[in-house]
Amino acid sequence: MKKYFERLWNGxxxxxxxxxxxxxxxxxxxxxxxAMNGIGMGLSTLAVLVLSNLVISLLRKVIPDQVRLxxxxxxxxxxxxxxxxxxxxxxxxxxEALGIYIPLIVVNCIILGRAEAYANKHTPLLSVMDGxxxxxxFTVALTIAGAIRELLGAGKIFGFxxxxxxxxxxxxxxxxxxxxxxxxxxxxxxAIGIKTRQRQLVESGCDGNxxxxxxxxxxxxxxxxxxxxxxxxxxxxxxxxEAAAKEGGEAK
Length: 252
Fold this sequence. Notes:
mainly alpha
């Protein structure tokens, strides 16, 4: 059960598609002028992510490698078309606000990236959990950015006036404001992450960053021991050859 919740945490925090992996930045920057737009875009992407991961995982042994990416695009395009029609029919206000960015979910690198990197190699249930985690992470990132931009740009959040009438720094509802807000959120996340890793390093001797770790963690002991034995054997090989040659000369 732990591995399923790990997929949720992974998409929400550890590998947040927008704030960590920097994927899907075009719609993130464009539609996050309001918190409601962020929720609409995030949930649309979440639905497509979950369904595409499920279908691709179910068909991963059927789709030939030679046409893998075209097949993914056909699957994703079909799901996006259904999602677009449903939004247009039942939530026209969101459809008008998001505009062209709904059909452009087809080429969103988050969708194709998770299909190729995860769904193509794992079971359907794990792939669905991965899609949910990544979709929630995308939705949360867009909603937070949209709320900040809407508050600073118009003094509102979800349409409710929180700051005095006439307040608003229009730069925050323009493209430069999107870059400033996302940069601020990423800086805060990085600061929290650095402090968390430092605390883990003090408490357990492991900061969770195995790629840059110079110590031997319990999960890596066998791998490290095997590498050390191989290195030792390589170092001792010349001595063994020299000793064997010496014994052969003495025998003669």
